[in-house]
């Protein structure tokens, strides 16, 4: 994580972002410096990518992995009326990306691979070239994409849960059947039109991502309400690891918040 490269002044600015994004303090940004371009686009995309990593791993392990053990189904056609299932992790991410696109924050988010299940996720051009290096080093790539005129950051998407590997290896449309835990399976690409962001703009990026997560998770719970044949898990403060339960949206987001706070703190203290 490049957050370690923040200088001291930026660090001071970063701490309130961190606290507010963790929900600890009401939004109060009276400092005169708040409208200055306090963050580079690379710093902000690194923060949101971090949050995304935590969200995706939590969703994959606790909801998909844990849920499957309880007999919950997850499917590509989860939004189909006849299909009684939740979103696959990649589609959860795509849902977040779609929700962000609907809002005012000009943040783009994509998931792709050199061996994709879905042909539309095939890495091409400059991104395919850079991905070769990402696979080797696992380090992110920050660059200006001349074609789209957008500042771009690509991060390794690692098989962080056994469910990633087993599902991809066994998928009928897979282009690779020997993925292993810990492999770089693809890249998460983020784009933003400016090279630096103010405090408020940085906050808005983080908030857009978190709102997107809540929106997709709510869509999933809405689908469940319409299940006719499958069991409906009880929604509340319990997780699938303890039975036919699903955490309520605020419980899920609260876990993301705690896990990403820890991760962000760790990278600040390195
Ligand atoms: C239950 C099945 C399932 C699980 C679990 C799963 N995926 Fe996928 N994944 C898919 C499907 C299906 C697609 C294609 C979705 C689409 O149409 O975009 C996909 C897409 C992707 C892509 C984009 C490239 C492609 O293959 O189309 C990446 C990268 C990816 N997944 C990585 C992961 C990682 C990392 C995990 C674990 C954190 C994971 N997946 C978990 C089924 C799964």
TrEMBL record:
<dbReference type="Pfam" id="PF11845">
    <property type="entry name" value="Tll0287-like"/>
</dbReference>
<dbReference type="InterPro" id="IPR021796">
    <property type="entry name" value="Tll0287-like_dom"/>
</dbReference>
<protein>
    <recommendedName>
        <fullName>Tll0287-like domain-containing protein</fullName>
    </recommendedName>
</protein>
<feature type="domain" description="Tll0287-like">
    <location>
        <begin position="63"/>
        <end position="191"/>
    </location>
</feature>
């Amino acid at each position: 994580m490049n957050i370690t490269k923040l200088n001291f002044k930026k660090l001071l600015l970063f701490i309130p972002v961190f606290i507010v994004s963790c929900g600890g303090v009401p939004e109060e940004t009276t400092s005169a410096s708040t409208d200055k371009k306090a963050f580079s686009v690379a710093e902000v995309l690194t923060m949101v990518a971090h949050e995304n990593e935590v969200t995706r791993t939590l969703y994959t392990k606790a909801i998909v992995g844990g849920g499957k053990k309880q007999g919950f189904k997850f499917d590509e056609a989860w939004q189909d009326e006849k299909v009684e299932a939740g979103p696959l992790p990649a589609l959860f991410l795509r849902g977040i990306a779609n929700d962000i696109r609907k809002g005012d924050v000009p943040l783009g988010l994509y998931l792709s691979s050199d061996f994709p299940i879905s042909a539309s996720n095939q890495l091409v051009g400059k991104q395919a070239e850079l991905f070769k290096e990402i696979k080797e080093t696992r380090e992110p790539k920050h660059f200006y994409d001349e074609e789209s005129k957008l500042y771009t950051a690509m991060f390794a998407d690692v098989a962080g849960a056994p469910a990633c590997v087993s599902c991809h290896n066994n998928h009928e449309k897979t282009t690779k059947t020997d993925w292993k835990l810990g492999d770089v399976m693809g890249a998460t690409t983020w784009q933003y039109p400016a090279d630096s962001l103010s405090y408020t703009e940085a906050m808005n990026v983080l908030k857009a991502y978190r709102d997107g997560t809540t929106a997709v998770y709510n869509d999933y719970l809405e689908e469940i309400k319409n299940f006719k044949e499958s069991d409906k898990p009880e929604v509340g403060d319990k997780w699938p690891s303890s039975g036919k339960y699903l955490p309520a949206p605020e419980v899920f987001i609260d876990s993301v918040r705690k896990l990403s706070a820890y991760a962000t703190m760790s990278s600040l203290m390195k």
